[in-house]
């Protein structure tokens, strides 16, 4: 079975916290000085990401980052298609194609990409998100031409046949069982948070897909999806590392430039989620849930919004580490929860801000509501202290710096910024955006989005807590 990252939601940080640390704990188990403006006199500096940017005649966008610090190169191809683009009644198609793209072409055998990377000491992988599907390789730089040919070849001549379709559909169905059904909180994270937050937008379907809809799919459905979305004018190619730009550009022109641009415009999601006017509440019971969980989801904004960075600062203040507010209150002081997370799950189109608490045995959901509301209300009524705010900014800057250490890191960041935010140059505004967030910004954004009327509440409870049906 391929070693792909089958589904990558932009909710990744919360997933890692929950399933790696918080879940294992669940299964075992003075205000600071106020200052409305940040002190940026000692602001960290960060070298900009220097890149070239051009678009081929067939619409493929190409960005090159030259860096000779190591004799390796990263190739990243991002397609502007994700879970939100799945056809109605066919959830999981973008995810399915993440797998199909490794099943060979008219010129290669299945898993050729593995041989072209792993056999020379490199690696490859892929991911599917709500708005983006990405494929990447890291290899010694003298293999750049080979991998550019391979990526162009699978864009142009992928083998989408009945055998590959059936095989990879079975793999995806198996992943659904492993990730969603067998994980105690898998259904909450991979289905309910999106499924109950959105009423119209296709984000409500999630990314991984559902067994019934995948089983109902036909080969014709899959081939049509491929023809619709896997086209050069729907893709962004980033090459980062040790290469000669003129030589790399000539190879890109040779292998990608001849791929024809299909007739007609790209298909884009036009649905917009209506504003939520009142709080919604849902309760679910599952047999394999060991402890009750409570989730708040708030409609938020897009990654390109000026408020996005502020929401990420709020996420950090609430739940980054044991000194964060939600941990201190719900886990340490009140001992209500075994784990608690907040996540600014922002996307190309307006995403959601989520807060999830896994309660300790015997604790009431209403008590958790009150504790969570108290912490959220504090953000709305009292300016966060400068020391706490500076800690949050510093942690985000540290994440940014660490996220640019490797060629593949910079390539991924540039792909995401280009496709999800519409402008690769925004990659070099990230540091200033973080450093400029003020206490007043935090309060304003918390008031704007983290409102009771704008939220959905999900109770995710052990099956044993389900009330028994009355009998006469």
Topology of helices and strands:
Layout: H1 12-28, E1 52-55, E2 61-66, E3 72-79, H2 93-100, H3 112-118, E4 123-128, E5 133-140, H4 144-157, H5 162-181, H6 186-197, H7 211-216, H8 219-229, E6 235-241, H9 245-255, E7 280-286, E8 293-299, H10 307-319, H11 325-333, E9 337-345, E10 352-359, H12 365-381, H13 386-402, H14 407-421, H15 430-435, H16 439-449, E11 455-462
Parallel strand pairs: 2-6, 7-11
Antiparallel strand pairs: 1-2, 3-5, 3-6, 4-5, 8-10, 8-11, 9-10
Helix pairs in contact: 2-5, 4-9, 10-13, 10-16, 11-12, 12-16
User: How would you spell out the order of helices and strands?
Assistant: HEEEHHEEHHHHHEHEEHHEEHHHHHE
Helix percentage range = 40-55%
Poorly predicted runs of 5 or more residues: 1-41
Mean pLDDT equals 90
Structure annotation, total helices: 16
Q: What is the correct CATH architecture of the largest domain? A: 2-Layer Sandwich
CATH class of the largest domain, please?
A: Alpha Beta
Query: How large a portion of the residues is in β-strands, by DSSP E?
Result: 15-25%
Distance between the termini: 53 Å
Q: What is the alpha-carbon Rg in Å?
A: 23 Å
Q: In terms of structural class, how would the helical and strand content be classed?
A: alpha+beta
Q: What's the CATH H-level homologous superfamily of the largest domain?
A: Metalloenzyme, LuxS/M16 peptidase-like
Describe the biggest sheet?
6 strands, mixed
Global geometry: globular
CATH topology of the largest domain, by name, is Cytochrome Bc1 Complex, Chain A, domain 1
When the domains are counted, the total is: 2
Describe the strand arrangement of the main beta sheet, using strand numbers: 1-2-6-3-5-4
